[in-house]
Design brief:
- By secondary structure, the protein is α/β, with parallel strands linked by helices.
- The chain has 2 domains: 2-11 and 262-364, Aspartate Aminotransferase, domain 1, CATH 3.90.1150.10; 15-260, Aspartate Aminotransferase, domain 2.
- The protein has 12 helices and 13 strands.
- The longest helix has 21 residues, at 37-57.
């Protein structure tokens, strides 16, 4: 299979990730719940992962909260900053993991920056929206549909200037682009463990620049005599037993990234993405691309997008078609009625994948 759906999840993990998950299942008990060897190995594994994440993402280990996925992390962050009915500024390219929690809170969404690959439009609209006053801002680092890298450093600076707390959704950037909690000054940064960080599904991270409100309450292995959740991180946001096998796999994925270098991963993916864009355009497809392009490419075939993806699947090529859980992004791009076919490269990106895709899409253009 030619796997080109890394925007959904990284599928081919480094071999060490599989070994780490298996080993944890055999050797690790519950961290923080005992002083015997299996519990201590679990605690050491979890803390090692926390330390490595802190090193990669510019924070202290206790600011790294483990979650079930990026959506879980975003819900903690959003519900800490937004209590209901307030105005929240978002970009025009947000995923439902951002917009649905805000809708549930009956937030008044003020959408900024609707033009693809246009930083001037984004920053002008974003500043204008902040000037009018807002309770919070939530914005993606990279569009999961179009691979549009937003100017998050400038947006973060604007939030600080106007004293608006903010959350960054790093679902498509963590492990591929620089993400640094301290430098960005974010209140929260949410990321999945199973995409660019190369860990298993069922893992995520919330970087906490401030104390979060607990989304769920329960045992933490600490402060057991009190009925309130602990007032210190990470325990305050980690109720219940952690996914130790998943975290063990995530730890190995982070170590792999540290060894490879995040910049090197991006350059490899970006090279493949640019080759893909040139190939698709040469065959006459409408391709959504521009400056500030990451490793995700959307295009429109000359047929229904879902049918096109199924034709590619029958040729052993895995892509995704539809709205990609991001109708707001499609509204911005004018593709809400059609959706797109999305190609998303991963850490193993290669020009051979682009060539295989070319042979597949030639059937679509016939």
């Amino acid at each position: 299979m030619i796997y080109l759906d890394n925007g959904a999840t990284s599928f081919h993990k480094p071999p060490g990730v599989y070994r780490a998950v298996s080993q944890a299942l055999r050797r690790c008990a519950n961290p923080g719940r005992g002083g015997y060897a299996a519990a201590m190995e679990a605690a050491e594994t979890v803390y090692g992962c926390r330390e490595t994440a802190a090193e990669l993402f510019g924070c202290q280990p206790e600011q790294v909260v483990f979650t079930a996925n990026c959506t879980h992390a975003l819900n903690i962050a959003i519900r800490t900053l937004v209590k209901g009915g307030e105005t929240v500024v978002v970009s025009g390219f947000e995923h439902n993991a951002v917009t649905r929690p805000l809708h549930a809170l009956k937030a008044n969404l003020r959408t900024a920056g609707r033009k693809l690959f246009d930083w001037d439009n984004m920053l002008f609209d974003f500043e204008r929206a902040l000037k009018r006053g807002a309770k919070a801002a939530v914005f993606t680092h990279v569009s999961n549909v179009f691979g549009y890298i937003l100017p998050v450093e400038e947006m973060a600076a604007l939030c600080q200037h106007y004293r608006v707390p903010f959350v960054i959704d790093a679902a498509q950037s963590a492990g591929v682009l620089p993400v640094h909690l301290e430098r960005l000054g974010a209140d929260f940064i949410a990321m999945p463990g199973h995409k660019g960080l190369l860990g298993p599904q069922g893992t995520g991270i919330l970087l906490c620049g401030r104390e979060p409100d607990p989304l769920i309450c329960g045992g933490t292995g600490s402060a057991s005599a009190q009925q309130e959740m602990p007032d210190f991180l990470p325990d305050r946001a980690e109720a219940g037993t952690l996914n130790v096998p998943g975290i063990a796999g995530l730890y190995e994925g982070l170590r792999y990234l540290r060894h490879m270098g995040i910049r090197n991963v991006f350059e490899r993916e970006h090279k493949a993405a640019l080759a893909c864009i040139r190939m698709l355009e040469s065959l006459g497809f409408r391709v959504f691309s521009g400056d500030h392009q990451a490793a995700t490419v959307s295009f429109l075939p000359n047929m229904d997008c879902e049918d096109a993806a199924q034709l590619l699947a029958r040729q052993g090529i895995a892509v995704r078609a539809g709205l990609h859980c991001a109708p707001l992004a499609h509204q911005s791009a004018g593709t809400l009625d059609t959706g797109t076919v999305r190609v998303s490269f991963g850490h193993d990106a290669a020009l051979q994948q682009v060539e295989a895709l070319r042979r597949g899409v030639e059937v679509l253009s016939a």
